[in-house]
Amino acid sequence: xxxxxxxxxxxxxxxxxxxxxxxxxxxxxxxxxxxxxxxxxxxxxxxxxxxxxxxxxxxxxxxxxxxxxxxxxxxxxxxxxxxxxxxxxxxxxxxxxxxxxxxxxxxxxxxxxxxxxxxxxxxxxxxxxxxxxxxxxxxxxxxxxxxxxxxxxxxxxxxxxxxxxxxxxxxxxxxxxxxxxxxxxxxxxxxxxxxxxxxxxxxxxxxxxxxxxxxxxxxxxxxxxxxxxxxxxxxxxx
Amino acid sequence: xxxxxxxxxxxxxxxxxxxxxxxxxxxxxxxxxxxxxxxxxxxxxxxxxxxxxxxxxxxxxxxxxxxxxxxxxxxxxxxxxxxxxxxxxxxxxxxxxxxxxxxxxxxxxxxxxxxxxxxxxxxxxxxxxxxxxxxxxxxxxxxxxxxxxxxxxxxxxxxxxxxxxxxxxxxxxxxxxxxxxxxxxxxxxxxxxxxxxxxxxxxxxxxxxxxxxxxxxxxxxxxxxxxxxxxxxxxxxx
DNA sequence: TCAAAAGTGTTCATTCTACACCCATGG
DNA sequence: CCATGGGTGTAGAATGAACACTTTTGA
Lengths: 238, 238
Known about the structure:
homodimer; Nucleoside Triphosphate Pyrophosphohydrolase; 7-stranded mixed β-sheet; 27% strand; NUDIX_hydrolase-like_dom_sf (chains A, B)
């Protein structure tokens, strides 16, 4: 097969997660911004934000660009999720979609322009979405929760320094269950990824908690396969 | 951006794993078939087998088709690994590659046509490959070894029934370390994924081992994100 | 001095690991 | 009867969950 015979369009979409309080309970939970489709198929239904991949940008850059264009958000974390390439049935043209998932901090999330065509939804209470986007979001949720337990992505929801309570609340919001503060502390301390700072937070009606930060030398950005071990430059694949 | 402005070609390549004995030690280890490139860039260097994605086939189908065409192999397991989409620098045209990884049984692996342009290499002793293919294979190895510990993919290297020794040897070959037979047995038994058959293997100069098989209702085929929970139909993504 | 969250200690259950030991077969 | 791998038992270490208890602050 000659490659110039190909008639495949390449799209990029992103599942964006942010922590926001649930109106009723006030507890933090995962929220996702969705955009309303303007064209068929699934016109006027909610869908993941995305767009076409440009000729001169990497897939990751395309994801970041589309994410900024559709929701005005710049994520603290961005990682590829999966490439969907089944032959499209509903439309004549063939589309392959690369799905990313992203985490944004709370302050950043508030910058998201919410309007008639962009709205935040609680991740565990979504409407019927366009295409298979419900399934994709379930998968992204599974990845986020799984990765939460062995990596340091909780960092993407926090500032430079934070208390152990704040970190625990992030974990609780993502995993949707309470964690024992004592055991959580030991777990984190034993992992060796945090270093205590010399500062504490005063003002609460209780003992002031110490501020921590992640140790150096650990970048948050996901390099994909090239980053799972310390390898050097990123190159392109045939 | 209009999608008809896109000039991106879509390629599919596969990291194929099979277990074969190492000539010197006789121990089983992971081997990978590679193909010699006929064109620039990296002409005459070894690379992952692959080809272009067809307009009317899913990405998985494209991977299986190219795999059969280049190595004559039909894998027992096939799963998407990662989509590489950096802007190509060495060649003028833009290529996005979807990489798959596959497992083939030993009998099947022997069918692979080995010639001047297709050869098997021990996975932990590879030459310098074209593009970033060394890094990609490292990542595929990591995925295989990680997944070995929580899923049932070892099955892809075995026949319908097998002894616990055979299963353990698969694990040892993949993980590259010895496993305690007693503890391995209990671990597997407690996982509840195996059922003993009524048959044993006689002929050895020792107590005849029992044959086991995987329990029903668990398909080996990987459905990707759509398969991580029991969800229904596969649809296409925008 | 009291409430509340920070932080420490301890106990119990579960799991992992190493290894001793018996079993069944072919030679 | 012996060598060999199949298969079982068990003691100690490591890990994790549950929870009592002490500490330090603001009010």
